[in-house]
UniProtKB/TrEMBL annotation, chain A:
It comes from the Archaea. Signal peptide: none annotated. It is a multi-pass membrane protein. It holds the Pfam family Oxidored_q2. Its main location: membrane. Its EC number is 1.6.5.3. This is Membrane bound hydrogenase, MbhG subunit (MbhG). The keyword Membrane applies. It is found in: Cell membrane. The chain crosses the membrane at residues 6-22, 29-49, 79-103. Keywords: Cell membrane, Membrane, Oxidoreductase, Transmembrane, Transmembrane helix. GO terms for molecular function: oxidoreductase activity. One of its GO terms (cellular component) is plasma membrane. It comes from Thermococcus gammatolerans (strain DSM 15229 / JCM 11827 / EJ3).
Amino acid sequence: MIQFQFITAFLLIVLGIYAFLAKRNLIKLILALDIIDSGIHLLLISLGYRIELNEVPTAPIYTGYETLKSPMVGPLPQALVLTSIVIGVCVLSLAMALTINAYRHYGTLDVRALRRLRG
Amino acid sequence: MFGYWDALYFVLVFIVGLILAYLLDKWAKKSGMGTREVGEGTKIFISGEDPEKVIPGFEHLEGSYTGRNVMWGLTYALKRFFTALRGEHTGLLTDYVSYLIITTAFVMMVLLIWG
Amino acid sequence: MNGEAILPYLIIIPLFGAFSMPIVSLIGRKAREAWAVIISGATLAVASALFYSVWEDRGIIVYTLGAKSPLGQGVSFPIRIVWEVDLFGAIMVLMVALVSFLAVVYSLGYMKHDTGLDKYYTLIIVLELGMLGIAITGDLFNFYVFLEIMSIASYALVAFRNDTWEGIEAGIKYMFVGSIASSFILLGIALLYGQYGTLTMSYLAVKLAQNPTVTAKVALALFIAGLLFKSGASPVHMWLADAHPAAPSSISAMLSGLVIKVGGVYALARLLFSIYSPLAYKALRAYGYPYINMNTVGWAIIIFACLTLIIGNAMAVIQTDMKRLLAYSSVGQIGYILLGLGIGLAAYGSHTGEVALAGAIYHTFNHALMKALLFLIAGVVIHELGTRDLNELSGLAKTMPKTTFAFLIGAAAIIGMPPLNGFASKWLIYESSAIFNPILGAIAIIGTAFCTAAYVRVLYTFFGRPSERVMKAKDPEASMLWPIIILAVAIVIMGLFPWQISEKVMLPAAKALEDQLAYISAVLGGA
């Protein structure tokens, strides 16, 4: 079975990096950042989701664990992704705030206009 | 591994040097024709620049050009190097990202081939 | 003293202080300032006690979050988050706490005319917290979280003066590229977790030695690229020259003195020596097992270090903006530290490698003091004159004698003039690089020549004929002057006992960093 989730994850990461290099609008760059982050999150989640013995794993809820016979997904990657999402939200909101301020100072969202500091 | 070094000896030598310089100065003042204590003799005269001299057309820079040309020889000799360096620092966000990608690709290539 | 008992307070105190700051600042301005000083002072006290405890015992302190032992119940591998401090980490902790404390004290006078100061003090303590966390953590994901705490606080602080275009532009450049670098590091962590199923650094080291795969190499490449970015090595140093001058000067001192070292070089050293290890490489190669060639990694780092050395110091020569000059000089000095690190990796096991590593650690500490001093002085100049253009600062020595004298000390130390502290650390790096490969030694000396040229320009400006603008300036108030004096005195005193410090602290730290087995067995208990 082809593991589509891994291919999708790396596709998302590459797509985000491509967008970062090719796009000029600051908002699009923020979206690119989010896409890279999502790709990594998808990769992490997929690492915990392993189909063993043709049984689909269930959510890692430990209450009533004894009655459950099927395997569970790894809980650690999910904890990591939750943390990482929180960090990602923090980065995105700060990026948005800076973009609004940049629009106030420069009157444009074109990233090529932001080059007064150089040399 | 190379030789021996102790900062305290350096300080000692430095102090001895200061005393020697002071004695030399005293001796020179005594045996010379006399030092000018006022007027021309008291000017700060760094790297051949006369701070009092006004260059025609550059009056707006008067008094504030002291450090500007100190390293002129170095910057002029390496002009092409510095121009190339300055040209690389474009200040474009996209360039910064591409340098990061290039670095990653370089390190990854090195590690995959010779790692 | 029991280091394990006081270790958690290193995180608890700044965390509590940072998030109680908005409440305390409701009482008033004085209360807020006093609270910031008390919190950073208490952190400094804890850090000093921790450093002394680690230095005295020569051991490794392990603290497990939420349990007595890092190992899981009934299994022989660690499942909990651990904090692990060896002597190298303890030096970093002391350095961070000291410079942060001085930066907070300096901010009392420097940031007086700004608004939003409750947020400023919260962020500065969060920044300190992030760096302390990186220095003590023994868990990869925990490391990522602290790295992001540090990075986000520094993005926000670079753009703190959002009424100027400079802060915003620098903030955007730093933030967008920095987030991609962080993403690379997270991707590397995800790959390692997928391959080996653990995040504890010491257990990961064991797993890596047992089965080095291509995935581990790819992850290592991502880590190195991301951390080189964070440490400001060429060719990914351009954000540094934009971001560090744009921040308020107290923040510039912390960014240039601490963030690029703890978040970049320290993390890189920890990764390369404690997880991917040259020790395992040597052993595996000798017995013919598959290995990851750490020699190649060392040489890759040396190449980047040489580039950084030359480009950073050369760009400093042609700057007219004082803070930008200092920022480029930081890039150049990072080159020396990376050179020491690279030689320590490539010449692992020999005396040369150990000396190079000790030199790198020593220079990290010294440069934190020197660059913090220089940036604080630049802040004083901006505060008094409102400009940092070198062409307008001529003759500062007449009206600001104490400041200029402190700058002279800082500049002489950073060039590596005896008998100041920069001499000893730079000497260790020159010496080991000349023995390792004479060409590297020559490159290091050329870098220093450029560095000297840059600082001589500034000093000539300061000692020149006073311009009219300068005549109104005077030495700053006490809260800004004292941090400068303390740093200058520390530089001179450290310069007077270079080999004693090198023998007693830096060489043991280099040995602790090289001794990967002790790092592993401290967590796994010799299993």
